[in-house]
Amino acid sequence: MFEIYQLEHLVAITEYGTLSLAAEHLHISQPTLSRSIQKLEEELGFPLFDRLKNKMTLNESGELAVECARNVLKEADIMVQRLNTLERSRHTINIASCAPAPLWMLTPIVSRTFPNMTMSSEIRDIEELKKGLMDDTYQIVILPEPLEDNNIYSHKYCEEQLYVSLPPAHPLCGHKGIYMSELDGESMLLFSEIGFWSKLHKEKMPHTHFLIQHEAETLDVLARASAFPSFTSNLVMKSVGKIPNRVILPLLDEEATATFYICIKQSSNKKFNLLFNRTKFLSQ
Predict the structure, then answer these.
(1) CATH, domain range 161-257
(2) 269 close to 153: Cβ distance less than 8 angstroms
(3) Could you give the residue range(s) of every CATH 3.40.190.10 domain in the chain?
(4) pTM for this one?
(5) Which region, left, alpha or beta, applies to residue 139 given φ > 0 means left and ψ of -120 to 50 means alpha?
């Protein structure tokens, strides 16, 4: 039976037009490539090329063989990708979230629950999270709603309430709470990686000049040292505390509160059962 590398050689000759160019691309000698194709033809039992002096062209069987070879190589690539994904999943827990704070809260719990596993985490939009969970890119995703799918288990995880952090001299400091529209048009500090919250800020505050910060530490330094308003939340304050000498007010917009769910495949429920037990208090 022929080998995968022989199919790669056949396709390369078709794509590059000549033995010499194909051999150069494959980083092998031209005689080696020629012997590989001859061996493939011997194993199939018929020629794939019409050979003339200094020229060889695919015959009808060769054209069909190239079409089939491309399909086989494509399926082989898919097989390798799926096997690599499976192997990584045995040693790595890939977590993704639509918002940063729930992820910050979850990752240390996952590390304690699975001390011998490697963990990766990232922020992605909601549709990417749903797709990534279904195709096993992620073993755990955090979404602002449960997934209505019999193959998915959704575990109520936590609630996040957005707040605004104001300098004491700000004219809105005397309020018990404010709407985002009341801040529209000001200059505000904003963390770049806020996930699905970003859409809310843009919709509710279209005239605000956001001073985007890509590092959480830089954002914290600026919030402490400047008079610019910034955002925080109950989860952020629980994780890193309140910024001193700032007035913290809740945002009263209905959309400024979100309930998050940890979503996994039902087939992984047993594996993550202990993790769910350790996160129950966050949803109470």
Answers:
(1) 3.40.190.10
(2) yes
(3) 91-158+261-283, 161-257
(4) 0.68
(5) alpha
CATH 1.10.10.10 residue spans of the chain? 4-88
DSSP secondary structure letter of residue 180 = G
* Burial of residue 135 (number of CB atoms within 10 Å: 0-12, 13-18, 19+): exposed
In sequence order, the 6+-apart residues with CB closer than 8 A to the CB of 169 are: 227
Strand partners, 55: 52
How high is the pLDDT of residue 127? Answer: 95
Domain 4-88 coded CATH 3.40.190.10 = no
CA angle 207, 208, 214 (to 5 degrees): 135
Which residues lie closer than 8 Å to 160 by C-beta, 6 or more apart? 99, 101, 102, 233, 234, 235, 257, 258, 260
Q: Are 63 and 13 in contact (CB under 8 A)?
A: no
In CATH, the number for domain 91-158+261-283 is: 3.40.190.10
Residue 174 CB coordination number (10 Å) = 8
| Residue 197 confidence class, pLDDT cut points 50, 70, 90 | very high
Percent of the chain with pLDDT over 90: 71
Q: Which residue has the tokens 């109520």?
A: 156
Helix/strand/coil (H/E/C) assignment for every residue in 67-106:
HHHHHHHHHHHHHHHHHHHHHHHHHEEEEEECCHHHHHHH
